[in-house]
């Protein structure tokens, strides 16, 4: 019995946590500390905070993987959720390992906008598109993140003659099309952008760089 108890403890999943980007939400965990724990299989359950019964996640029941997609299960974005995981190996089951409480609206990371750059001889026009959520309208198109948050766009310009880190904030606001004027012909400029959520004081990562020579 002692050996079983040791195995139970040593295969128990570690660091169970939610990761979420634009409401695409996955539960991640690490294997237990025993070396053989890498061969364990895992079982995932979830529930809304305050509910008494846990729901099985059928796609993540007896899986070798250490990640489980719970996007669909966490689609009520204002609700707080929990996830939990247990492991099995050689007929022995570990206890459950619990995640922290996770509220999608508060905790999902928001991605950067899509950036398109059109240049003329002295100006750059920047077109911005908000990231999409995984949720769809009745007609099938994906709902943009601007439906869920008051998003601002931050647009930075990098003059390639200067230091790479020298990003100048050229615009902050809600416009999807902006014009940056009075630039120098023959100079290479790059544009990067972020989304910013004032209410949560949170910025996305930078978009990929779009460069152009006027």
Describe the structure in your own words.
Belongs to the type II cytokine receptor family. One of its GO terms (cellular component) is plasma membrane. Keywords: Disulfide bond, Receptor, Repeat, Secreted, Signal. This is Interleukin-22 receptor subunit alpha-2. It contains two helices and 18 strands. The protein is mainly beta and 214 residues long. The strands form five sheets. Strands 3, 4, 6, 7 and 8 form a five-stranded antiparallel sheet that branches. Strands 13, 14, 16, 17 and 18 form a five-stranded antiparallel sheet that branches. Strands 1-2-5 form a three-stranded antiparallel sheet, with no helix packed on it. The longest helix has 9 residues. The radius of gyration is 23 Å and the shape is elongated. The mean pLDDT is 92.
């Amino acid at each position: 019995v002692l050996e079983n108890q040791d195995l139970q403890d040593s295969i128990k999943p570690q660091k169970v946590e939610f990761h979420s980007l634009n409401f695409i939400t996955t539960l991640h965990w690490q294997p237990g500390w025993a070396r053989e724990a890498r061969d364990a299989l895992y079982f995932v359950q979830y529930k809304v905070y305050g509910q008494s019964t846990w729901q099985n996640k059928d796609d993540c029941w007896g899986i070798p993987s250490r990640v489980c997609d719970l996007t669909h299960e966490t689609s009520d974005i204002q609700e707080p959720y929990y996830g939990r995981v247990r492991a099995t190996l050689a007929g022995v089951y570990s206890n459950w390992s619990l995640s922290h409480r996770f509220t999608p609206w508060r905790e999902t990371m928001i991605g950067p906008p899509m950036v398109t750059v059109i240049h003329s001889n002295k100006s750059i026009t920047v077109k911005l598109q908000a990231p999409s959520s995984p949720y769809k309208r009745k007609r099938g198109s994906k709902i943009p993140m601007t439906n869920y948050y008051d998003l601002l766009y931050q647009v930075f310009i990098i003059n390639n003659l200067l230091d790479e880190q020298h990003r100048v904030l050229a615009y902050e606001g809600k416009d999807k099309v902006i014009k940056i004027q009075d630039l120098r012909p023959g100079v290479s400029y790059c544009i990067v952008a972020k989304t910013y959520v004032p209410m949560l004081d949170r910025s996305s990562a930078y978009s990929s760089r779009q460069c152009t020579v006027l």
